[in-house]
Write a structure and sequence with these properties.
Blueprint lengths: L4 H4 L3 E2 L4 E5 L2 E3 L13 E7 L7 E8 L13 E6 L5 E7 L4 E10 L11 E4 L19 E3 L4 E6 L1 E4 L2 E3 L3
Amino acid sequence: MKKMIAMMIGTTLLAGGVAAQAEGVRTQGLDERDCAAGKSAFLVTARGFSTDVGAVRVQLYRTDDGTFLDKGAWLVRAERRRDGRPEMKFCIPAPGPGRYGIAVRHDANNNGKSDWNDGGGFSRNPKLSVFNLKPDAASVEIRVDRQPVPVDVVMQYRSGLTIRPVG
């Protein structure tokens, strides 16, 4: 099932964002048609970025099967370059009604690796620490039926030995 993800890669830059395909779901991270009434989707607003550069990736995971944040376990993924705006919006279609979690990552220097200055955030904005960078599935879980669900994510960054929002 999730092995179809391997077919997906080769993200393609488009005018408004990046296209990704996973399990037959195609998202540009901006296409409001995916967030129309009657569809299972998340309208993600990420805010609180430390810089106006880099890339932002949003990934959708199941929270009810023990694979939350497992490598390669994401269902839908969208990525765009930072554009200088204080917040970024993504429309993330879900495969159907259910329980999901959203992870957002800011690759501040756009090198594709996790670095000290990169930031992250999750649905429901759980508190993170240097000892707990990956929250448990229950703390980020959001239910969706057949209507888009708004999700606000406040980005968090390392500051000394703490993880917190900027400012």
